[in-house]
Design goal:
FAD/NAD(P)-binding domain; FAD; 19 strands; 452 residues; EC 1.14.13.59
Length: 452
């Protein structure tokens, strides 16, 4: 029997997920409260303690944006939650300045986020995964929702909310060719890389042959980590393209990640939005930092010098099918170059790392009980889902709005501005709802609800 714990009090808002997006929102809400506009907010996070991509933090991982694009500095550079204040509090500000870099390691940035999150521990329930968000209907109108979550012991928790902010991030994308290998311990998505590699035979020095699939930054970092830290491993890195491509982070292009550019994208018709997003995909997707590409090229060149080939880059290749056997994982690999033969080459590996990106569909699953009110999950400029009038609970999405708000929506660049926009909109929405609740219902109540 499932044990249920029901909290009778309704929060003004519940944030689902407590990654950087909702952490930035917690900071913005605190600032808003100090300005006399308080809201009662609670956050639910499935991880037991705070980790930001914790299983991907290999030694070579560095941030790809400036430390000044932290949780708050672009909005409020005097905030105590800035990255600079974090360095000061930890006695490393002078040392960091001496590094002469804008780009901290991901390990340090993860520690910064943990430090910032620790200030909001009382507002967050860790170790609970939200299962669904259910409507609570009164008189044909939904003024609150039930947020149902499960903890590690299988206990069910139900909390009431007047507003929802969903920020659960992406879920690993598993290519169709590997769908039949889900759950096989020899296969991992890069999101679980560090935990997984520690369980593999190469962690104790045994020889292995590993394939890395994908052409972006994550694949490059896994490739280098396997080369540098697991000398018993032979690696094939398989990419569809003819070469590794550098990320475009030049100054003029980087302006597309400025908060003001969100308006430029949003104000376009959908065809214009799509064109702008497609034009700049090379800033974020299937691209690698140029210095990392140089490092990989030098690595492969040294192999030629010494005549010992332990790692290989296989270009113009795609995995068509994959199957497991007692002897390993067999990949059917086809050439992607125009005019290449249609036949496939079968290669056997002891393990495979999928650096194949993420899907962003979890909001549809969690909000399924509200789907009839949320249409196609389109959002307004302030990230609020456009909903049917009878759903009086505002629902906001963070990290699921790239098609309407631009490439920066899934990244860190706009966190401070977006958090302020959402915090202000929630306050105004709930204030309007309270005014509506204070008024007696008149004849023609349906029209009054729609206007509210």
């Amino acid at each position: 029997m499932t044990l249920r714990e029901i909290s009778p009090a309704a929060h003004d808002l519940i944030g689902i997920g407590f990654g950087p997006s909702n952490l930035a929102l917690a900071i913005a809400l605190q600032e808003q409260a100090a300005a006399g506009r308080p809201l009662d907010a609670h956050f639910i996070e499935k991880q037991q303690d705070y980790q930001w991509h914790g299983n991907t933090l290999v030694a070579q991982s560095e941030m790809q944006i400036s430390f000044l694009k932290d949780l708050v500095s672009m909005r409020n550079p005097t905030s105590p939650y800035s990255f600079i204040n974090y360095l000061h509090r930890h006695g490393r500000l002078v040392d960091f300045i001496n590094l002469r870099t804008f780009y901290p390691s991901r390990m340090e940035y993860n520690d910064y986020l943990r430090w910032a999150a620790s200030h909001f521990a009382a507002q967050c329930s860790h170790g609970e995964e939200v299962a669904r968000v259910e409507p609570e209907t009164q008189g044909g109108r939904i003024g609150r929702v039930r947020v149902v979550s499960l903890d590690a012991q299988g206990r069910e928790h139900t909390r009431l909310a007047r507003a929802i902010v969903l920020s659960t991030g992406g879920t690993p994308r598993i290519p169709q060719a590997f769908a039949g290998l889900r759950g096989d311990p020899r296969l991992t998505h890069h999101s679980g890389y560090l935990r997984w590699i520690g369980t593999q035979p190469c962690a104790s020095g045994k020889p292995m042959r590993i394939a890395v699939i994908g052409a972006g930054q994550s694949a490059a970092e896994a490739f280098i980590d396997l080369h540098d830290n697991y000398p018993s491993v032979k690696v094939d890195w398989i990419i569809r393209g003819a070469a590794l491509k550098p990320a475009d982070d030049s100054p003029f292009v980087n302006e597309i990640f400025a908060p003001a550019y969100t308006d430029v994208v949003f104000e376009q018709a959908q065809a214009g939005r799509d064109r702008l997003i497609d034009e700049y995909l090379n800033t974020n997707y299937s691209v690698i930092d140029a210095n990392l590409i140089d490092q990989i090229y030098a690595m492969l060149y040294r192999q030629k010098v010494c005549g010992q080939f332990r790692v290989n880059l296989l270009t113009c290749k795609a995995v068509q099918a994959a199957q497991g056997s007692a002897g390993g994982l067999e990949l059917a690999i086809a050439a992607t170059a125009p005019g290449a033969p249609a036949d496939t080459d079968t290669r056997r590996y002891d393990a495979v790392v999928l650096a194949t990106g993420y899907e962003r569909e979890s909001h549809r699953r969690l909000l399924a009980p509200l789907a009839r009110y949320l249409g196609d999950f389109s959002v307004d400029r302030n990230y609020r889902v456009l909903a049917a009038p009878e759903l009086a609970v505002p629902v906001y999405l963070q990290g699921f709005c790239q098609s309407s708000h631009g490439l920066s929506d899934t990244l860190l660049s706009v966190l401070p501005a977006r958090a302020e926009e959402i915090a202000s909109d929630i306050h105004d929405a709930l204030a309007g709802e309270r005014r509506w609740m204070a008024q007696p219902v008149q004849a023609g109540g349906t029209q009054a609800i729609a206007a509210a």
